[in-house]
Amino acid sequence: MSTTASTWTSQAAKSLYDMPLMDLLFRAQSVHRENFDPNQIQTSRLLSIKTGGCAEDCAYCSQSARNGSQLSASKMIEVERVLSAARKARDGGATRFCMGAAWREPKERDMDALVAMVEGVRGLGMETCMTLGMLDDSQVIRLRDAGLDYYNHNIDTSERYYPEVITTRSFADRIDTLNRVKEAGIKVCSGGILGMGEHAQDRVDMLVTLANLNPAPDSVPINMLMPQADTPLAEAKPVDPIDFVRLIATARIMMPASYVRLSAGRSEMSDEMQALCFLAGANSIFVGETLLTAENPEEDKDAVLFAKLGLRAETMAGRCETKAAE
Ligand code: SF4
């Protein structure tokens, strides 16, 4: 399944977002059915391999050393611990294992262990994803050669609103890393966060940037801010659930072949809201109890929700069948 090349304007995307909700949902679900099994959800498991003490100043993040959070910095965990967590995730049905480190960028001394993690998780038959901050060319090549399938690097918000959230690296820095990863042949996972004080147009413009990466990212995580104590956004206003659903539907229409992932914030969503998000075209979730530092619904709660909605978790075998049919 390849992502479709497209050029979206800010205005066209906003008109879509503003459609009557029923029309928007119908269109999103129709696009979704042309590209995916509507009753199948991809599940990923995320492990923090190095927590806290990050040099960046992302206003939403409790791992930033600049945000005065109480979270203490840890060292990178050993490869064996990562592989044992991955094995557990695979046995629990996850098809992709995401490893996240709170870094501005990895150091050379970290690379051997990172490569061993990718090779080891790949060896367990899972897809691999990493989120490590900015990467230079040689780091991208080493990770690709080790078998890294996805690299996560979120653009977070619109280019206009970005400086309100992060000042230690620019929007252009983010796009550079995404281009480097894409050109090396690693699949791109990139999305953003709603609820940081941005306007609806910023949310839509974030999607315009992603859709116009050409190809669009293979995976688009949409997070709902979970305000963290001691961060500048600790008192941020909650996102309106219908606005959130609108953005998911708009993302589905603009990036028809991408996996659209419900990420952080799912623990705050009702079953009804999650069902609406799936109807709007979300087809990927994180499973497991924690998302780096924010809460995630417990797995048995997810199993109950899947059963209620008649959803199935995508399996590696199922994915291979879909690919073979392309
Ligand atoms: S979001 Fe990532 S880069 Fe930003 S402060 Fe947190 S860990 Fe660091």
TrEMBL record:
Gene3D superfamilies linked: Aldolase class I
Co-factor remark: Binds 1 [4Fe-4S] cluster. The cluster is coordinated with 3 cysteines and an exchangeable S-adenosyl-L-methionine. Binds 1 [2Fe-2S] cluster. The cluster is coordinated with 3 cysteines and 1 arginine.
Cofactor: [4Fe-4S] cluster; [2Fe-2S] cluster
Domain Radical SAM core stretches: 39-257
Binding site for [2Fe-2S] cluster: 98, 129, 189, 261
Listed SMART domains: BATS, Elp3
Catalytic activity: (4R,5S)-dethiobiotin + (sulfur carrier)-SH + 2 reduced [2Fe-2S]-[ferredoxin] + 2 S-adenosyl-L-methionine = (sulfur carrier)-H + biotin + 2 5'-deoxyadenosine + 2 L-methionine + 2 oxidized [2Fe-2S]-[ferredoxin]
EC number(s) from the headed UniProt entry: 2.8.1.6
Name of the top EC class for this enzyme: transferase
Record PANTHER family: BIOTIN SYNTHASE, BIOTIN SYNTHASE, MITOCHONDRIAL
NCBIfam families xref list: bioB (TIGR00433)
Family assignment from sequence similarity: Belongs to the radical SAM superfamily. Biotin synthase family.
The name this protein goes by in its record: Biotin synthase
Organism: Thioclava litoralis
Record lineage: Bacteria, Pseudomonadati, Pseudomonadota, Alphaproteobacteria, Rhodobacterales
Gene name, Swiss-Prot/TrEMBL: bioB
